[in-house]
Write a sequence for this structure.
């Protein structure tokens, strides 16, 4: 079975370099510019394998999008624009406009789900954004001027006439006046642009176009960095044409039966040199050697453009197209035209009877040995790539490198391979460390491809370093986490063999790290024995932004990652310095003892079901239906609302259902006893159990997934939540969101006492001060969990505030 080099070699470095360069194409009288996606497929390749085309007539800028993934576009493409006039933004961190899907996509934040902050780099600071959402509820495309702030802060400029809409299948077109982004008609100007592909819930992919993006944690509500951008020359003159001659040797494809010109099979070439990169330019046999196919194309791109291309076979009998099975071949467009080197199709050279060029690969593993990533006694290092015959390419046939035990550098590993490709063929290769020896199945690959061109004679390639790690740093970093809450809740039980750890980018600069993290331990004799700590020697260079989370490894169970409230559930981070770093002690999930119940408490839910209709349009029928509630006080949280497909649900989860109270009214209620350690912030949701036919298949039906109620338990012992209305979620910005604490108010003095009221909860304290200048405050510990008091009035000034320690 042939293993595609495309699947085994990581193309990030190659694609990023190409994506940063705009690819220009001639079309009279306007000039079209094509931008190729970065090759990522985290959202299916809609944009990562797509093509964005821009053109203008001196007044209007017109764009088109040809999507990968069968031409579909299921999410939002946001194209940020930097016109070069200054006043742009370095990131989306302060964008918070969530009026609709377009605003959410531009800002990268959805309070009901999460935030995916995008940081702009390399001199790219956009002032505008184009959001294109053909479907997914928006069916609209427009231009907005970027502004920090909340809802309504983005300035809408104009629609871009996105076509088609209300469907996902393209191609898609859009157009807008150049003046909308501050350009002057018929006046040449260069703008920078970058496109990111993101869902309408701010869940960002790693797919990009007209540039590149990096997210160390992959797609999600995670931080991302724009690493490259493209340029567009508005109102630029048409390009001149430069002849480029392509030539490919089909001898081995004919011998193998993969190409039969007698049956009408054809050979063509496609790539960035064309006006339409998805088209093909057909080649013809060369006179005198009909195994070589050639053709000259008039390239409309500017001289110096970095181009890429691939040869392909069209089989008449099978009605199939076979494209070369590795990365696109590159060339730089030269003045006066050029003849590209002769290559074998797919780099498949005859096994015998051709000249070979002995290529020697060398790698210095000294840093990897020091990092503990390579053990000279048990491990092996190999190299593989397109220099091998791709028909037999597989990791098991990689070239094993060896060292010289008596050499000056015993960590230098080398190996020679006879390359049978034509001279100047574009080659790619990659080193791999085989843990526990070659053929063990445990492989660590380099993250990026390396390149060379087949030499005229034998050649020794330069000495490489694995993943280009040449220097090894060693900075001690102390991680500490207070595990009081998970200990109290029973989520973390060291007596049963559970362990605590920290996991993140600090662990290893070259390899993917497993979820377990490195072990943290506590001091049983310390004042606070619930604090778990550990020192890790960070080998990344100073200045790196490290990301991490604390984890629980249950004995025999799956690793549990924390979800810190300070990062909206995202990763914690720190910037690595030159000296030893002691990170501050934090609470697991940022939940300290003032944010959970210190004692068991009864909580009562009440909901008004007047005219209640579930999100699927099914009305509530009090004669047949039931009402239930579920939330984070249950372990595991939301068990009913997530899988309520069982007709016996009333028997399986009787305690989740509310009773009609008073009977015959539209109000339903239920009281639950929640244990100590339960968060005072309660997230919950109601559902209707339609006990009629097939309507009982989903009781997560009050509102869309993740759109919940959030309230706070404010008194110990027992507490009744305010009455809810079915379908009115407190996480909905349009609803009256319940605050954690506040509303501090002071009444008039009566009988020598000040009546003070506030919205409180367990952990919130009232403090008093007589002088604001010295910033000295006295906590009234008896106010914990209260919402009012009568404070004895004394002479002089008295100031009050609420705090959550």
């Amino acid at each position: 079975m042939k293993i595609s080099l495309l699947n085994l070699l990581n193309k990030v470095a190659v694609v990023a370099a190409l994506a940063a360069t705009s690819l220009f194409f001639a079309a009279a009288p306007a000039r079209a510019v094509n931008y190729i996606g970065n090759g990522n497929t985290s959202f299916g390749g809609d944009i990562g394998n797509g093509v964005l085309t821009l053109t203008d007539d001196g007044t209007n800028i017109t764009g088109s999008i040809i999507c990968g993934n069968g031409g579909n576009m299921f999410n939002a493409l946001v194209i940020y624009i930097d016109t070069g006039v200054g006043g742009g933004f370095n990131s989306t961190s302060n964008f918070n406009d969530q009026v609709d899907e377009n605003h959410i996509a531009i800002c990268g934040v959805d309070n009901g789900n999460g935030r995916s902050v995008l940081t702009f780099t390399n001199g790219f600071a956009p002032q505008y954004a184009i959001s294109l959402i053909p479907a997914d509820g928006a069916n609209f495309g427009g231009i907005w001027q970027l502004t920090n702030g909340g809802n309504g802060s983005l300035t809408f400029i104009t629609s871009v006439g996105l076509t088609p809409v209300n469907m996902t299948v393209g191609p898609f077109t859009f157009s807008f006046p150049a003046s909308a982004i501050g350009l002057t008609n018929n006046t040449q100007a260069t703008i920078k642009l970058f496109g990111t592909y993101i869902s309408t819930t701010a869940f960002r992919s790693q797919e990009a176009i007209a540039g590149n993006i990096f997210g160390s944690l992959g797609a999600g509500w995670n931080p991302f960095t724009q690493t490259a951008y493209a340029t567009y020359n508005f109102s630029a003159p048409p390009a001149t044409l430069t002849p480029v001659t392509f030539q490919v040797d089909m001898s081995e494809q004919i011998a193998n039966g993969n190409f039969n010109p007698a049956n009408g099979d054809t050979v063509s070439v496609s790539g960035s040199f064309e006006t339409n990169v998805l088209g093909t330019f057909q080649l013809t046999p060369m006179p005198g050697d009909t195994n070589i196919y050639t053709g000259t194309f008039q390239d409309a791109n500017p001289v110096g453009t970095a181009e890429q291309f691939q040869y392909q076979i069209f089989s008449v009998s099978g009605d199939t197209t076979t494209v070369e099975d590795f990365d696109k071949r590159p060339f730089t467009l030269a003045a006066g035209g050029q003849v590209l080197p002769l290559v074998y199709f797919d780099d498949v050279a005859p096994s015998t009877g051709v000249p070979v060029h002995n290529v020697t690969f060398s790698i210095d593993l000294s840093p990897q040995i020091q990092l503990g990533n390579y053990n000279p006694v048990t491990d092996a290092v190999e190299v593989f790539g397109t220099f091998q015959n791709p028909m037999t390419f597989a990791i098991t046939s990689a070239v094993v490198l060896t060292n010289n035990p008596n050499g000056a550098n015993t960590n230098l590993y080398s190996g020679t391979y006879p390359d049978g490709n034509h001279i100047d063929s574009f080659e790619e290769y990659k080193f791999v460390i085989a843990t526990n020896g070659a053929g063990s199945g445990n492989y660590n690959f380099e993250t990026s491809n390396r390149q060379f061109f087949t030499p005229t004679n034998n050649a020794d390639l330069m000495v490489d370093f694995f993943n280009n790690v040449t220097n090894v740093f060693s900075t001690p970093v102390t991680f500490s986490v207070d595990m009081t809450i998970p200990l109290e809740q029973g989520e973390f039980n060291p007596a049963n063999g559970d362990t605590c750890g920290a996991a993140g980018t600090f662990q290893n600069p070259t390899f993917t790290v497993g979820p377990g993290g490195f072990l943290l331990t506590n001091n049983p004799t310390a004042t606070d024995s619930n604090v778990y700590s550990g020192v890790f020697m960070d080998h990344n260079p100073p200045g790196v932004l490290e990301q991490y989370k604390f984890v629980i490894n249950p004995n025999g169970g799956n690793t549990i990652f924390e979800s810190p409230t300070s990062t909206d559930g995202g990763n914690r981070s720190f910037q690595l310095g030159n000296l030893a770093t002691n990170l501050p002690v934090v609470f697991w999930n940022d939940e300290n003892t003032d944010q959970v119940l210190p004692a068991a408490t009864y909580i009562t839910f009440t909901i008004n079901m007047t005219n209640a209709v579930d999100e699927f349009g099914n009305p509530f029928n009090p004669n047949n239906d039931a009402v239930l509630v579920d939330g984070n006080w249950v372990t595991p949280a939301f068990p009913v609302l997530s899988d309520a497909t069982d007709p016996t649900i009333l028997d399986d989860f009787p305690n989740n259902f509310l009773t009609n109270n008073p009977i015959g009214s539209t109000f339903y209620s239920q009281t639950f006893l929640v244990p100590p350690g339960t968060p005072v912030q309660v997230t919950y949701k109601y559902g209707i159990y339609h006990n009629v036919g097939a309507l009982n298949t989903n009781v997560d039906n009050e509102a869309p997934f993740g759109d919940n109620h959030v309230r706070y338990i404010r008194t110990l012992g027992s507490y009744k939540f305010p009455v809810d209305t079915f379908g009115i979620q407190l996480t909905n910005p349009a609803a009256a969101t319940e605050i954690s604490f506040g509303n501090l108010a002071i009444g008039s003095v009566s009988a020598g006492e000040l009546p003070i009221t506030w919205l409180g909860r367990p952990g919130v304290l009232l403090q008093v001060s007589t002088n604001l200048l010295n910033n000295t405050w006295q906590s009234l510990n008896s106010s914990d969990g209260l919402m009012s008091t009568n404070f004895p009035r004394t002479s002089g000034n008295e100031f009050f505030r609420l705090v959550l320690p």
